[in-house]
Design goal:
- The chain is mainly α.
- It contains 7 helices and no strands.
- The protein is 74% helix and 0% strand.
- It has helices spanning 2-12, 36-56, 64-87, 92-115, 121-144, 152-168, 174-204.
- Helix 2 (36-56) runs parallel beside helix 4, helix 3 (64-87) runs antiparallel to helix 6 and helix 4 (92-115) packs across helix 6.
Length: 205
Amino acid sequence: MRKGRRKGFRRQFGLDRSGPPPRQTRPGQPLRPWTIPNAVGYIRLAGLPVFLFLAFSSGDGRDPWAAAIFWLIAVGDYVDGFLARATGQYSRMGAILDPIVDRLTILCGAAVCWHFELLPRWALGVLAAREVFTAVLAQIYLRRVGELDINWLGRIAVAPVMASIFFAMISASPVWDVMLIVGVVLGVLGTIAYVRTGLRELATA
């Protein structure tokens, strides 16, 4: 019983991602756009133009309000997943919307940091290229085989990338540079794993 409760707790808070994705999120299922988790996704998406406006109007890229909005959008990725698991309101729309908003958030944050040189531009360039390549790869995989499962390297890479962008918009420190580089390396390794898995699945198909 205790083991079952522990597993339920880990699954509820997104620590246990074992097992297949919920049936409602798979290709061919109804979109179900009007759910509580999707509402969080829509709010995150609507917050991106506000973030960009405040950040680019700041003069140096370091605006507390812009940083706060970026943080809320980034944390919203965890909130909508938690709400989906808590309410059982899984949907195909959520499965499509969530990674799109995540990539847009990273690209918007990278654009601000690039413009004001808050983080190493070479790392930001690799980051942006990786996000675009992964999005294209996911579309090819979706058309040929099916849904591309997110691996743990890809999941873990998001945290240091988002954190480095957020902290760089607050203060200058080489720590944020290192944090970004770590996230980029993890992300690239995750993409390599995606390519290997995709090639294997395509060959099987």
